Amino acid sequence: MSLSAATTKTLKNGVKIPIIGLGVYKAPKDETETIVYKALQQGYKHIDSAQFYGNEREVGLAIAKFLKDTPGKSRADVFYTTKLAPTNTTYEQAKSAIEESLQKVKEIGYVDLFLIHAPAAEKQQRLNMWKALQEYYEEGKIKAIGVSNYSVLLLKELLGWDGLKVEPAVNQFELNPWLVRPDLVEFCKAQNIIIEAFSPLTRGHRLEDPELLELIEKSYPGKTTAQILIRWSLQMGFVPLPKSSNEKRLLSNLQSLDFEISDADMEKLTHKDDYYVSNPNFDPIKKYFDKW
């Protein structure tokens, strides 16, 4: 499976999304612009931010600077994602928040993908947010819309809504070899919803996992456990969003594209009966599952 940072998947509306992205959650505000600029120089094509992260402006400035400084590059060469905070629960609040996010990145003209960051508590609140998002999508200010941390139950709720005009193109949620969420993955694939994997590196908690270290020693010398975890996500068909503020690790994470894990090793790595959430205090999906 030959992959590069320029390899894309196609969303249901025809928009192309790069298969790996840089997450900027908890990137220091005063360092975000530099981190994103360096990542783009290294070859990243996809940056994932959010209102909650507090660094949309810095990401937008970095993208604009990169495009200005790099001959032959255009806005179409960078994919920018942000997310609507779940506190914007009325239609008017959601519209105002979306407009604010667009203004923060006005130098780059538009948002490629706008997600609902996490499900609001009440059905009407969730639908209010989607109504606002799909209106901005129809106006062309956003190229694609989707959700994050949505369960099968909540996806069915949205897809069955009589006010639905634009179906979600993406669902972003936590995935790793010990958190495979088969029911949700199967449902998203059946609905042609692209799956993005946040925290694909388990927030660093499993980087010294003995199984991973043994696998590298036996079959993938020179590779890192982080590269194995990212490559696992890629081969599972997900769009992983690893984050790092370290320039060397940024590049190392991209090098997960230049090798392949064997089918047998993928099978060993995939723990279908585990449920390892790297931050147990934040798992909006779990409470909406019947299975767990």
UniProtKB/TrEMBL annotation:
Active site, per annotation: 53
InterPro entries from the UniProt entry: AKR, Aldo/ket_reductase_CS, NAD(P)_OxRdtase_dom_sf, NADP_OxRdtase_dom
Record key words, sorted: Oxidoreductase
Positions that bind substrate: 117
Domain called NADP-dependent oxidoreductase: residue spans: 27-272
GO terms assigned for molecular function: oxidoreductase activity, acting on the CH-OH group of donors, NAD or NADP as acceptor
Site entry (Lowers pKa of active site Tyr), positions: 83
Domain of life: Eukaryota
Cited SUPFAM superfamilies: NAD(P)-linked oxidoreductase
Oxidoreductase recorded as keyword: yes
Secretion signal span: none
Gene3D superfamilies with a match to the protein in the record: NADP-dependent oxidoreductase domain (3.20.20.100)
Family: Belongs to the aldo/keto reductase family.
Protein name: LALA0S06e06590g1_1
Species the sequence originates in: Lachancea lanzarotensis
